[in-house]
Specification:
This protein has one domain: 3-Layer(aba) Sandwich (Rossmann fold), CATH 3.40.50.300. Helices cover about 35% and strands about 25% of the residues. It starts with a strand and ends with a helix.
Length: about 270
């Protein structure tokens, strides 16, 4: 199976201090890889490096066979959509106008949208159930609504690879599951490849094909959810009291968090 994204021995950081060290993993085409770890583990630095927002000090990131350092931002955006966790509130564009900007890598900023572009925008509005918001100003939306609009803009790029940093933040459980269901369906039906930073371990287990655990800037473990989402590994990763069972439907690990009052530990 072709690896769409390869991170090869990457070290990166700010000023003189490395934040991530010797990170290596690959994401096969049509799969979903989840990255998990405690705050300060280096997940955001890794995300920024893969997104071409910062250069690695050592090592390389490859999109298919191309070192992304040799690709322009526009060329990269023609294949890869980046959905960061924090974005500034955009100027008062309507939702439809803002989502339409996802076509810029293919058509250019000043070009008029052709019928295919229009069809893609309308399809994405329906996919994320944003039709009723399309004429609203983006900066008038709630945090959860805005998160869905940012994702819609990314999907409108029609990427082969999508990079998402906490895409379910601000969302209720219905929209969390809808967004991850959409990514899962696109992975299965059209070969979309996804890298997603998540904090919810049960969503990670349910939706991800592969998982990378990060701690203190390094890879703590990597494998399938069944292989590495164990009580022992999660307790060690987060220094928290948990138990792991098996979901009766998915047969994947399900994490139970234990408040101190139930553990007998003072």
């Amino acid at each position: 199976m072709v690896d769409v994204l390869t991170v090869d021995k990457v070290t990166a950081g700010y000023d003189k201090d490395p934040i991530i060290r010797d990170i290596s993993f690959a994401v096969p085409k049509g799969s979903i890889l989840g990255i998990i770890g405690p705050n300060g583990a280096g997940k955001t630095t890794l995300f920024r490096t893969i997104s071409k927002l910062m250069r690695p000090w050592k090592g390389s990131v490859f999109y298919k066979a191309a070192d992304i350092s040799t690709m322009s931002q526009k060329e990269y955006a023609g294949h890869v959509a980046v959905i960061p966790q924090f974005r500034s509130v955009p100027p008062p564009f309507t939702v439809r106008e803002f989502i339409s900007m996802g076509r810029y890598p293919h058509s250019g900023r000043l070009a008029r949208m052709n019928p295919e572009d229009i069809s893609i925008v309308e399809h994405t509005l329906r996919l994320l159930k944003l039709e009723n918001f399309k004429d609203k100003k983006v900066n008038a939306l709630s945090g959860g609504e805005m998160q869905r609009v940012f994702l819609a803009q990314g999907l409108t790029q029609r990427p082969e690879l999508i990079l998402m940093d906490e895409p379910t933040i601000h969302l209720d459980i219905t929209h969390k599951m809808r967004i991850l269901d959409i990514i899962g369906s696109l992975a299965k039906e059209s070969g979309l490849t996804a890298l997603i930073i998540l904090h919810d371990l049960n969503l990670t287990s349910a939706y991800c094909d592969h998982v990378v655990m990060m701690k203190k800037g390094e890879i703590f473990a990597k494998g399938t959810p069944l292989e590495i989402l164990t009580g022992e590994s999660i307790s060690a990763l987060y220094e928290a009291n948990v138990r792991v069972g098996k979901d009766p439907v998915t047969q994947r690990p399900h994490v139970f968090f234990l408040p101190q009052k139930f553990t007998g530990i003072e």
